[in-house]
Specification:
The complex is a heterodimer.
Chain A lengths: L8 H4 E8 L2 E11 L3 E5 H4 L6 E4 L18 E3 L1 E6 L4 E5 L22 E6 L11 E15 L2 E8 L11 E4 L2 E9 L9 E2 L2 E2 L7 E5 L1 H7 L1
Chain B lengths: L3 E2 L3 H6 L3 H13 L4 H12 L16 H14 L6 H7 L2 E2 L3 H15 L3 H18 L1 H14 L10
Parallel strand pairs in B: 1-2
Helix pairs in contact in B: 2-3, 3-4, 3-7, 4-8, 6-7, 7-8
The chains are: A mainly beta, B mainly alpha.
């Protein structure tokens, strides 16, 4: 993926799902990477690959209307590696992705105010598979701590919901971050309304610098 | 069947993918070289749920405890569900990728965490059993389980 104009994004940006009673429940988003695997935040899977599947994205979405009623063809997926420090895992379907991201950038190149593009599947948790281009900007960059481990993250000025974790954040055609989700306080219980936690109803979405993906892939 | 775990620290860590080795050694360092603590941190951090990932309290709180409990049963207990796995180990577990991989697959089936996710943590526990001795590690597991009380509903929420 070098620019959004010369790649069919649906070929490299896919959905991660768990198959329950022959129905694909979309959990998040993954990107095809070198080595013929897919990378996604580990929290998307909850650490389990039971009945996990990769659901391919819509093809030619840049030049044609997307079909949202078509059956979602998927492939069984398994976790091949994980690194909880960076909230990343690598999935394999045993198949070769039609397109893949060969290298990743970093949020080091996106100071506050930098315009970025997010390719994402909004409302994926409701079964929607509409690959959508969001333009936003970096509102802040922060060092986030998960336990003793610190990662560089960007705060994007957009709202996000379940199923969007793992969406690529691009700047000048390079993936600079992976969307993780909306910030929420862990010490207070959330209220779910139609599957949406009310704590996430704000425009601070966090994305981890893609440099950790580069390190993770080795 | 009484089990014995052998091998040096480097032999066990060499059995991992080099990037997994670097990652788990980082976790071990942040855990003051306590293999039980590091293994539990690894599993706990790996099993957060898929909503509000930054939530400090998110995730399957009991996954790490279940992992330690199951390994304790395998190594120190006599639960019949591990008879076959113990038998396949042949009495002595050697520092080989295949050994950690096979045991990860067995434990994964009981704790609902992917084998590839727990393999580095499991390697730490095997390393601990090889270096400190089985009896010492069994006591450490018992201490860990005693200090991390069983939640009302263990398993996936």
């Amino acid at each position: 993926m070098t620019t959004h104009s010369n790649l069919d994004p649906g070929a490299a940006i896919v959905l991660v799902a768990r198959i329950v009673d022959n129905t694909a429940l979309f959990l998040g988003t993954a990107i095809a990477v070198r080595g013929n695997n897919y990378v996604t935040p580990l929290h998307v899977t909850g650490g389990s690959d039971e009945n996990l599947a990769i659901i391919y994205g819509p093809r030619n979405s840049q030049i044609d209307y997307q079909e949202n009623t078509e059956l979602h063809q998927g492939k069984d997926a398994r976790i091949v590696r994980a690194d909880p420090r960076y909230d990343l895992c690598l999935l394999s379907t045993g198949m070769f992705p039609a397109a893949k991201v060969m290298s990743f950038g970093s949020t080091d190149s996106t100071p506050p105010g930098t315009p970025v593009t997010v390719w994402t599947y909004p409302q994926a948790n409701w079964g929607r598979r509409i690959l959508t281009w969001h333009n936003t900007e970096v509102g802040a960059r922060v060092r986030m701590k998960t336990g003793p481990f610190e990662t560089k993250q960007a705060v994007l000025n957009m709202q996000s919901g379940p199923g969007q974790s793992g969406s690529p954040v691009l700047h000048k055609g390079q993936v600079v971050a992976l969307l993780l989700g909306a910030y929420g306080p862990g010490d207070s219980p959330g209220i779910l309304m139609n599957g949406v936690d009310t704590r996430t109803l704000h425009t601070s979405t966090y994305a981890i610098s893609a440099e950790y993906v580069e390190r993770f892939l080795g | 069947m009484t089990l014995k775990v052998v091998g040096t620290r480097d032999e066990w860590l060499d059995a991992l993918h080099p990037l997994d080795r670097a990652a788990i050694e980082d976790v071990l360092q942040h855990s003051q070289d306590d293999v039980v603590l590091a293994a539990s941190v690894w599993v706990q951090m790996s099993t957060t749920d898929n909503l509000i990932p930054h939530s400090a309290g998110g995730g399957r709180q009991s996954a790490a405890r279940i992992f330690i409990k199951e390994f304790h049963e395998f190594l120190c207990g006599n639960d019949p569900k591990y008879v076959e796995a113990r038998s396949e180990a042949g009495g002595t577990i050697h520092p080989q990728a295949a050994a950690a991989s096979a045991l990860s697959a067995v434990l994964a089936s009981y704790i609902d965490v992917a084998a590839a996710v727990i393999a580095p943590a499991l390697t730490l526990l095997l390393l601990g059993a090889a270096s400190a001795g089985k009896e010492t590690m069994c006591q450490k597991f018992a201490d860990f389980l005693a200090s991390n009380d069983e939640p009302p509903n263990e398993g996936r929420g």
